[in-house]
Design goal:
globular, Chitinase A, domain 3, alpha+beta, about 25% strand, about 45% helix, 7 strands, 7-stranded antiparallel sheet, about 180 residues, 2 domains
Length: about 180
Amino acid sequence: MKMNNVYVSLFLIWIIATFCASCTQQSNENNEQITQKQIDTQEPFVKVNRYLVKKEEIEIDDLVRRYGWSMEVSQSGLRSMIYFRGVGQPVVPGKLVTIRYEVKLIDGTLVYSSEKDGLKQFLVGKGGVESGIEEGILLLKVGDRAKFILPSHLAFGLLGDDKMIPPKSTLIYDIEVVDLN
């Protein structure tokens, strides 16, 4: 009788192990199907996004060419041009920077300016400004004046700012570093 119980127990363990292995294999197959479905669904969106990014790059390049600006392009896509060199200390992370600025849309529409809205202050490297400004400000020192062109992904992205900047907007910043503490 004990031997039968051992066989029954082993048989039950074998059935449970086989069932669990089958569930795991089926689960993995379902995950692969879901992943393939997600890829198939996302592919048109990826293509559209690539097209829109390329279109934005062409518009920016055309603007730069029209105005004859000599701009550096970073790996992120930020375009920068320092057109007046100051003599102050360089901007570094953790410092409070004060800037004078104008922000325009790519069509030239003025959306924000320090003349209208006051000087802007922010802690460098701590957020609170567009990622393109965080990147670009580190190229400057007190007294520098520069132009930055921020593609939408370095500015306010797909949503805009819910005020003056529409969704997916390229921004042109004219900045002067006034102070650094």
